[in-house]
């Protein structure tokens, strides 16, 4: 049996891409493509579920819910030859818990070009929508961008980072693209994937996990049903979130709220070992301990969760080598 090789992306270098380019540049010569994935092959869309699951199992630490939910939703969506709506996922959790890592893996294992694919589009409020006074222009540009790229390729991936920083109202222009209508503005959009990422709900997720720990419940016993309501309420209560008073929330257009749990000491240790392996180095107890000793944990009494998850592991390792 062939050995599956899983890619491993450094935690600190996942968001380095982006810049809007013209929709025309996203055009692709479909006749030149060769594909063995049958009806699912469009543009440079090349789903590799085995590779994705392997990578998630090896490198996404402490996230049993996110891993299972993302894989299940993605498989069901991609294997449906005629989905009635796009796949829309909203990733929530504390910083450094793996949200950006997962979005990067989706691009890597769904598209031949990964994050560099002309059909993967990554938006950051700071980069693409920096001026609140230009909201109306941003709305027009975003709608045009999404519509144009879906016209070029229905199998497109749209990533929206830092939803906590996105001006409320902007994302509403996407509402017609996210629902169950068959055609919007003359564009076939049903095979697209939209991923929204934010820290909102992280504090509430942390509290649920902390209470489970205090009750001596295993982390893996925590269920999605415990977290969905608190995440949803956190979004609805946050006037700075992109979904504030949004029809997207009111009309339940999100297919799943994906929770990322806070990371504990042994999870950070796992990240350190992964990063050393990526550097081609053998495990070194003194480096692992130095990173752990330099990491801040909370709450103050329990010292249970890493304040930055695994976000700063790569830079800390470099310092202690």
Automatic annotation (TrEMBL):
Nucleotide-binding recorded as keyword: yes
Source organism, top-level taxon: Eukaryota
Keyword field contains Manganese: no
GO MF term (any one): ATP hydrolysis activity
Location in or out of the cell: Endoplasmic reticulum lumen
Keywords noted in UniProt: ATP-binding, Endoplasmic reticulum, Glycoprotein, Nucleotide-binding, Signal
Residues annotated as binding ATP: 93-100
InterPro entries attached to this UniProt entry: P-loop_NTPase (IPR027417), TOR1A_C (IPR049337), Torsin (IPR010448), Torsin_1/2 (IPR017378)
GO terms for cellular component: endoplasmic reticulum lumen; nuclear envelope
Annotated signal peptide: 1-26
Domain Torsin-1A C-terminal: 266-320
UniProt similarity note: Belongs to the ClpA/ClpB family. Torsin subfamily.
Protein name according to UniProt: Torsin
